[in-house]
């Protein structure tokens, strides 16, 4: 699997800490319900959906939150380590899921319009424009209702500052991550309808400042001063950590 990600499967598994105890993660998820606001957002935006596919599932927390909400979830990843971890977490939560090892840059092993919602979180930033177009074309082919993509937000000042500093000091561990200002043009090319785009997770974005000397104090002051909480609503001034782009399907095989 030839990728631009700059990290091997084993390195990704290590960065995502997939060697941790999946039962411990499951226990935390069981008590908290969702670790990040965008997981809650996914539940809201798939309220009319029964089935979901997670492209590049990582440890699988987002799909687990959806499964806890009653969805039939399919998790797709190129790393067997990640899928094994997700399976263990699902077992610990008493959930059922489908786990598929696949390269999302190639045709997906699902039928046309066979899944209600297809989503991806923290994956598209590792691909170039042509690859994004190809992945979205497949996502809209298999989706029946909508496609949701979440990537780091290039307009988030705090995230960009923290990322720049960590790259400069050699402490950045997330490979060749390229944030986006917008994915709307890619969604239009895929034939999506009713496209929406906004950012979420301002509080999370401020966390990147803690890597900079004195940044932790700034983070705390801004969090307290702005009254920030981990809510799933769109961030003010587009300063959320994740850019969320979603589009509705016009029908089977939306992509042109």
Describe this structure in words.
With 256 residues, the chain is α/β, with parallel strands linked by helices. The chain has one domain: Rossmann fold, CATH 3.40.50. 38% of the residues lie in helices and 18% in strands. It contains ten helices and seven strands. A seven-stranded mixed sheet has the order 3-2-1-4-5-7-6. Strand 2, helix 5 and strand 3 form a beta-alpha-beta unit. Helix 3 packs across helix 4. The longest helix is centred in the middle third of the chain and has 14 residues. It is globular, with a radius of gyration of 18 Å. The two termini are 26 Å apart. The model has no long low-confidence stretch (mean pLDDT 90).
Summarize the structure.
The protein has 256 residues and is α/β, with parallel strands linked by helices. The protein has helices at residues 9-15, 22-32, 37-45, 61-68, 80-93, 129-142, 157-169, 184-189, 202-206, 215-225; strands at 51-55, 72-77, 98-101, 115-121, 143-152, 193-200, 242-248.
